Structures are given as C-alpha cells and as structure tokens.
Amino acid sequence: MARLSVQSLNALRDQLQAERAGREGKCRATVIVHMGTCGISAGARQVMTALLGALEERGIADVAVSSSGCAGMCSREPMATVQRPGEAPVKYADLDEKKIVRVLDEHVIGGSIVKEYALAMGSERAG
Amino acid sequence: MQDLAHHILDIAENSVRAHASLVVIRLQERPSEDLLRLEIIDNGEGMSEEMRRQVLSPFTTSRTERRVGLGLALLAQAAREAGGDCRVESTPFHGTRIVADFRLSHIDLKPIGDLGETMLVLAVGHSDTDFALEIERGGGLRRFDTQEIRASLGDAPLCSPTGLRVLRGHLGEVLGTRPTHPYGLKESPNAC
Ligand SMILES: Nc1ncnc2c1ncn2[C@@H]1O[C@H](COP(=O)(O)OP(=O)(O)OP(=O)(O)O)[C@@H](O)[C@H]1O
Ligand SMILES: [Mg+2]
Hints:
heterodimer, A: alpha+beta, Glutaredoxin, 4 helices, 4 strands, B: alpha+beta, Heat Shock Protein 90, 6 helices, 34% helix, binds adenosine-5'-triphosphate, binds magnesium ion
C-alpha cells in the first residue's frame, strides 16, 4: 500500500465523515428513481446508472439513492423524485442520462430546481 | 424491453413490491436441451391462486395507478417468441417463483444484456432486500450475493462511493468483466 500523506488522510477522513453522515440520515438529499415496467422500458435503469456514476465521479457519499415503483404517469417516464430535507419533493419527468446529471449538479448539489424538467407542483395526480 | 437483463430488473421489482427480503435470480444454460432457463424466486407475500392463473395476461395488476400490468406479460411474450414459455408458481405468504424458458438457438432470443447493471441498480435501489444472481453455464456455477457484500461493508450504504466500488468489484469478478469504465460491466450481446 502506498504511504499515506497528510493530505490523503484528510481526504479519507472527510469521505468517512460524509459517508457516516449519510448513514445517520444526514443526507443532503434523497433521489428516488421510478422503476416500474414503464420506467424501465423508457430507460430508468440507464438513468440510475448515470446518476450513480456521477455520484462516484464527484466522490459524493451523502446523497441517498433508491428505487420505487411506477409514479403513475407512464408516458412521462423515466421519472425521478428529488427530496432535500425541509423542502417539498420535486418530480422530474422525461429524463435521460444527461438530464439526471444536470439535476444532480444543479438541484441536489446546487439547491436550485431544474425547472425545464420538473413537473409542476401538484400535477403528479393528473396523470 | 430490449434484453433479458431489463426483464429481470422488472420482474425482480415485482418481488420487492411483494415485500420479499430475498430475491434469487437464476440463469441456466443447457445446450444439450437447447434451453435457457430464467428463474426469479422470492420469499415475498405471494399471490392468490386466482391471481396466479391470470397474472400473465396484460390486464392483471394490483396496481391502483392504472389498469394494466405489463411486466409478466412482456416476459411471457419474450419467452414464447423464442420458442419457450413462462409459468408462475406462488404460495400466499411464502413466495413466488417465475420460470421463463427460451430456446437457446432461437433467432428471436433476446440478448442477455448487462446483468451487472441490473444487479447494481437492484442492490442500490433497495436497501432492505437482498439479491442473489446464480449463473449455471458450461458445468460451472457463478454466484453474486448482496448479503455477502452488505456484511463486508458494515453499515456503509451501497450507494456511497465505497459501496459502489465494492459492488462493481464483486460483479466484475462474477460476470468475468473488468469494471474499468465507471458504468462498466458491459456484456457482449447474446453471451449468457
Ligand atoms: N413476485 C410477486 N409476488 C407477488 N405478487 C406478484 C409478483 N409478481 C407479480 N405479482 C402480482 O401480479 C401483478 C401483475 O404483475 P406485472 O408485473 O405483470 O404487472 P404490474 O407489476 O402490476 O405492473 P407493471 O409491471 O406494468 O409495472 C402485480 O400487480 C402483482 O399483484
Ligand atoms: Mg411489474
């Protein structure tokens, strides 16, 4: 194993702290990818893989990712829901690999909703 | 669905919805019988005999969001198109077993697709369910099991960078692909 520099030790400590924060429920956000048949046929698996790849590339450990069933709007799949603590959940529709990474950077990390892809609040029920 | 790996993801999602704590996905290649057998076995809540009998029809669903349930009907169609068939066995409160048979040599057999991505997405997506993948081929058995991975990770979540690295490493070993690309684990079409 290579010798650990102070810098790499600090980085390791930060990473472990962030991962512990995630475990303790102190996630900066949760992203739920909808994984019903309609979602999967429209590309939900690829959307989730792109999201995981981007999280890994950015070294982010305090974003929780999970799958759930169909969001009830099959024609707008793939869909994902972003939930930041203390904020209303936001549903995104017609996603692809590029769009989900933009949602990650701008909303999950940056804190501002990507309005172009977001469903209007409350419109979930109309589908 | 473009390949069997996507069907597997979809059928295993049914098991999760039925509150299974363990889902075993088994792929057997039996060239002497010209057979590819896919089994998805869960210990979820199962379904009634009435449900079981109609579940391969596209109009059977317990969903409330819509009237059609397509997942099992699509799998059955893919099996029939490849000269095979699909059947469902289920015991309420005990679990469900889906068996889909395909003729290995059939021209309309869908490619297997990327089993690594399917397992990764299942494992990360459902922290309360364990998934095992067993591939029997050419006399050998290869096995991937999230129970082992979760045990070795302690309480680090699978969606953390460490979790993903460990998951990809295991999947790469089992599927015989080196996870070099971050989205790695590509399998060549039609290779089981
Ligand atoms: N493993 C299982 N355990 C218990 N019930 C199941 C299982 N798989 C399927 N079912 C039942 O069969 C129904 C039909 O399943 P199917 O996958 O065909 O459609 P769906 O899941 O309802 O909708 P879709 O797959 O289109 O999102 C389900 O709604 C569920 O009630
Ligand atoms: Mg289904």
